[in-house]
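Hi all, posting the design record for the shared folder.

TITLE: backbone redesign
STEP: 1 of 1
STRUCTURE INPUT:
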């Protein structure tokens, strides 16, 4: 019997498990990096761009953007029209909502081929939307802090919830 070949072979199930864990760790590392940027007060456009880049890479063959509510309706129509003119199809259009259900923006993703998101892609979009909401609300919170002073009790009530995907 060849004992060496037995000990050097890795079972297929273990390799799949290891690859899955490596993938989860890389996703978590990017999410942690974005949360660090948010907590450090990095500029909002940079954070939103990183979120879009992260989901574009994870899904592949897509282009995403986050539109804030202060964008004009003409601009929104222009983006959609431009995307369709170059042959892109709307892949997903997800509202970014605050806790009180107020609109903070929209995540739009365009794809080369018309198709629907998979369950895994839906989960990725949910995470991006959650992180975008935290970043946008933090920007709003900073603007409020620069305005009239607030009591510490008010600060606790608007603190963002801990994302469900971080242990």
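Okay, here is what came back for every position:
SEQUENCE:
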């Amino acid at each position: 019997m060849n004992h060496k070949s037995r000990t050097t072979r890795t079972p297929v199930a273990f390799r799949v498990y290891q690859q899955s864990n490596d993938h989860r760790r890389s996703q978590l590392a990017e999410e942690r990096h974005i949360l660090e940027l948010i907590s450090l007060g990095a500029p909002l456009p940079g954070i939103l761009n990183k979120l879009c880049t992260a989901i574009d890479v994870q899904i592949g063959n897509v282009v995403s953007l986050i539109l804030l509510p202060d964008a004009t309706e003409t601009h929104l129509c222009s983006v959609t029209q431009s995307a369709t003119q170059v042959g892109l199809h709307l892949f997903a259009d997800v509202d970014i909502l605050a806790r009180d259900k107020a609109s903070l923006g929209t995540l739009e993703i365009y794809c080369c081929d018309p198709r629907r998101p998979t369950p895994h892609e839906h989960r990725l979009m949910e995470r991006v939307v959650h992180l975008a909401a935290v970043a946008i609300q933090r920007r709003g919170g900073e603007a409020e802090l620069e305005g009239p002073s607030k009591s510490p009790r008010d600060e606790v009530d608007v603190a963002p919830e801990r994302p469900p995907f971080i242990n």
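COMMENT: The helical segments are 3-8, 12-40, 44-59, 73-85, 119-146, 152-157.
Let me know if anyone wants the other runs.
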